[in-house]
Structures are given as C-alpha cells and as structure tokens.
Amino acid sequence: MSRRVLVVTHSGREEAVAATAEAVKALDGAGFTPVLATDDSRAENVGELELAIVLGGDGTILRAAELTRGLGVPLLGVNLGHVGFLAESEREDIGEAVQRLADGDYEVEERGTLDVRVLLPGADTPVVGWALNEVTLEKGDAARMVEVALEVDGRPLSTFGCDGIVVATSTGSTAHAFSAGGPVVWPDVDGMILVPVAAHALFARPLVVGPSSVLALEVVARSPANGVLICDGRRRVDVPIGSRVEVRRSDVPVRLARLTRAPFADRLVLKFQLPVDGWRGRGASSGRSNGRAVVREV
264 phi and psi, to 5 degrees? Predict the structure, then answer.
C-alpha cells in the first residue's frame, strides 16, 4: 500500500521551492509517495493520506490544516518563516525529519479548534466556519469603531465599542491574541481566550473561559460600523449590524506530528528569543553538567 504524504508549501518563496524539492526527494527515498498540494486542493479530493509535511511558516500550517480538515492527518511543520510557532522542524533538518516519519518515530499531539456560527439578519440558515488559532470580529470601516455586545453562556456580560475582538484557542494565544495583549496559554489548557482590541470601555480585559462555554458577539443596532469576521486570517465573512456570532469548542481537532517532547516553556524561549541569562534552577547547589542540573539520588 502506498504511503501517501501531502506536501504543502509556500510556493511564492524561492527558499520554499528549494525546500520542497529536497523534501520530495527525501520522501521518495524513504518509501513515501509525495502528493503536492495545489491552491484548489480540498480534503475530499486529496485522497487517503498517512500524514502531511508543511514547508513554510504558521500561515502555511494553517492552510494545511484547512486542506486536511476532518481527515485526522498529522501535520509536520518545517519552519521557513520568522517565528514558526506551530512548526516542529527547521529547514536544515528535512532529511532527518522525513526518516523519522518513515520509521514512525514521532508522537501526535491534538490541538483544539473552534466552531463558528454567524447568524445574519434576515437569513434562514447560519454561515458556519472553524478556526485553529482564532476567530476575529473586526470593524468593517477603518475610520469607525464597531459596537459589540458580549455574551457568555447565554448571559450578557458587557457592551463596548472597539476595533475588534479576538476569540482564540490556547494554540492561538501566541498569535493574534498575544499581539492584542492577551495571555500566553499552555497548549494543554482546554479553553477559549477572548481579547478585546482597542476597546473604549472600563471593563475590557482578556477573558479565559472553559471548554463547555459558548461565546457570542452581537453587532448592536447603534454600532457606527458593520463588522467583518475572519477565521485564522484566511476565511472572511461580512457581519452587518444586527448579526450574531457564536463561538464554541469544536469536536474536530488538528493533529500535529511532534519529533521532540520539549516543554512548552522551552518553545516559548526559543521562538520569542526570551532572555534567560542568570537562571540557575532547582538543584543549582548540587552541581551542573552542560548547563543542566545534575540530579543526585539520596
């Protein structure tokens, strides 16, 4: 049986083209059948896949997640971007990564996603969508705020004008939500983060709610502008005044192939280049080896 691997790449970059050629050669050599994704690829026509290898930054991984939605295919990201928070491997490690995939020497980590329903005025059926990182309700007019009523679990919480509101997963806490002033949330926290953007209100702090909660955002009648809903920075829906957006935890996760079991704190330090000079850690007085604490049994 052919071991088919979907190859998703940022085709507009010269480095990505070269990396794709290297990945395809390595996949062939490891006994895989590479399947190059195209712009019109969809989950229903890519065929049966063992996994997907993604060459690019986080945006390319989001595209791969969209192409494989519902297939349960693990995604291995090879970082060609700047931060590449979702990526597992670096450009120079493609050959080694492919061999480990061939040997089954990897783990699969599931990341929660969001389901979205947009109820438009006068429409009989909702517009539905999903997101891995975040759902963002933004103002449709750059010169005006959008006035939004916030609801949590069927109860009103607040109403305010703002540039937008970000609803993120823990995975997306280090993306748009982080830039808007939201907290960094560890991936194993199964919740949703809501972050107002430039809100004109006394109470407009980020919120973290549980996995069973339902968040709703309504563009109220007095809003100076319509809204725009954007899922993962890729899929857009116009949200006129009088619309209601409902966001809840999805039952369909995204699966990421992991080659290492490094703690999330180490990923934060690496990706954000955080200063950790001076850290000694527990057991500093017991001696060290290569910068790591030496554990002495007693």
Answer: -60, -30
- Mean of the pLDDT values across residues 130-140? 98
Is CATH 1.10.3210.10 what the domain over 114-249 is classified as, yes or no? no
Given 58, 153, 190, 232, which residue is catalytic? 58
- pLDDT tens digits, residue range 78-132? 988 777 788 888 878 899 999 999 999 999 999 999 999 999 999 999 999 999 9
pTM of the entire predicted model: 0.89
Q: Where are the domains of the chain?
A: 3-112+253-272, 114-249
Pick the CATH number of 3-112+253-272 from 3.40.50.2000, 3.80.10.10, 3.40.50.10330, 3.40.50.300: 3.40.50.10330
Q: Which amino acid is at 84?
A: G
Is 141 catalytic? The answer is no
* C-alpha–C-alpha distance, residues 291 and 239, integer Å: 53
Residue count (the chain): 298
Residue 202 class from Cβ within 10 Å (0-12 exposed, 13-18 middle, 19+ buried)? exposed
Q: What is the pLDDT of residues 39-73, one digit of tens each?
A: 655 655 566 899 999 998 899 999 999 999 999 99
